[in-house]
Amino acid sequence: MSPNTCWFCKIFRAEENGISFKVSLEEVLQWSQSFEKMITSKYGLMIYKTYLKIEHSDENIDFWLACEAYKKITSQRKRISVAKKLFTSYIQPQAPNEINIDSPVRKAIIRNIQEPTQSCFDEAQRIIYMHMERDSYPRFLESKFYQKLKHSLQSNGS
């Protein structure tokens, strides 16, 4: 990713030039307390999503967020349409953004896709959440992105 197009890089350049942005040190430190705190934080989610994009695993957060939106759909017609899009983007074998779920979960979704319920992606979403929480989240906390952001805010506070 080019430094000219990386919004994360622009944040650091702006910070180095004395221009502040809205995330606080307190908020950034809370991200390390739990995965839940990070993804429910507007800036935490944005920065984590950028990290996953660089790590080439942003399909996980994209799927998780799409499932959160899917659960709020009340129209059965729209639910069917969105379920099919989720299936073709993330679930079917060789999907463009295929997620890592086990075969029984994939088969259950395939069985239910014709008459999708509000909860038909819940198990896949739970698995993806666990993958992120146990795998990419700890790497994120150790990443130079998180560490540099934290250090930058700590330096500005002193």
From TrEMBL:
Taxonomic path: Eukaryota, Metazoa, Chordata, Craniata, Vertebrata
Gene name as annotated: Rgs13
Q: Which InterPro entries match?
A: RGS, RGS_sf, RGS_subdomain_2
SUPFAM superfamilies recorded: Regulator of G-protein signaling, RGS
A Pfam family it matches: RGS
The record's listing under PANTHER family reads: REGULATOR OF G PROTEIN SIGNALING (PTHR10845), REGULATOR OF G-PROTEIN SIGNALING 13 (PTHR10845:SF32)
Protein name as catalogued: RGS13 protein
Q: Gene3D superfamilies annotated for this entry?
A: Regulator of G-protein Signalling 4, domain 2 (1.10.167.10)
In this chain the RGS domain maps to 34-150
